[in-house]
Design brief:
Blueprint (H helix, E strand, L loop, with lengths): L2 E10 L3 H13 L5 E4 L6 H9 L6 E6 L33 H6 L4 H17 L4 E6 L10 H12 L2 E2 L18 H13 L6 E6 L6 H4 L10 H13 L3 H9 L1 E4 L19
Amino acid sequence: MKNGLITRADDFGSGLAANEAILAALAAGHLIRNVSCMAVGTTIEQGAPELAQLCGSVDVGLHFTLNSEWDAVKWTPCAPKEKIGSLLDAHGQFYQTRQGLAQAGTDMEEILLELNAQLDRLTALGLPVSYVDAHMAPDAAIPGLSDEMRSWAAGKGLLYVRDYYNFPPADMPAFGPTEEVYQKNVERWLDSFAEGAQYLYFQHPARLSDETMAFSNMDFKPGIVAWERELEYRSAISPAWRGRLRDRDIVLLRYRDARPPEHEISRTGTNF
C-alpha cells in the first residue's frame, strides 16, 4: 500500500536566500509540492511573480505569522498597526515568541484582521492561495484560535492544514554536521514510515547566506539555522528523491490531493 507524503516548504518571502532555494527546489521537481508564503516577509514581493508561474504543479499557502522569532529579524504586520495594538509589543513590533503573544492577552478580532490582511497581500501579488497554516503555531498556544482559523478558512474556501498534521515516530529527519550524515538520517526517517500512512514533511530551504546567519535567538546560536536550512535546500534539489520514493512506494502530495484528515494532531514545535 502506498504511503502519502505531503511535502511543504515554509517561509517563502522571508529572504532572498529562501526564495532562491524554494524556487530552485520547485524547478527541480523532486520533492516540494506545497509552498507556505510569509505575507509579512521582506522579500515576498520579489519572489511572488516567479512563484505564481509555478502554481500549476504546487499548492500555495498563507504562512500566517504573528511573531518575529529571531533576535535581529523582525516582520512587519500587514494590517494598520493602530488597529492591531494587542498583537504588538512596546516597540510596535510583533512579539518575538508565541508565548509572549499568548501572554499579552491578544484580541481575537485583531488577530482575524491581521489574518485577512495577510491573505489580501498574497492574493494582490497574484498568488492563488489554497490553504493556511501558522508560523510557529500560535493556533496551538492561543485559546480558541485554532477553531477561529478553521472557521475562517472554510469561509474563504481554504484548507486549514493543521488538521493534516501527522508525523512518523521519528518526527522530522535529524540534522547533522555534514550533508552525508543528514542524507543518511533522511533515509532512516523514510524507513520509519508505517505502511499506508499519510505524513507531513515540512522544510525551510534557504541558501547559506548573511540573511540566514541572522536567523538566531537564545535557542539557536548564529549559524545553526543557516546550516540546517542549507542542508534542507541541498536535499530538496537532490535527484536521490526519485529512487527513495520509488523504492518505498511513496507518493508526494499537494494538500488538495491529500486524504481528508480523520482527526487533528497537535504539535508544539519551535520552528514551523
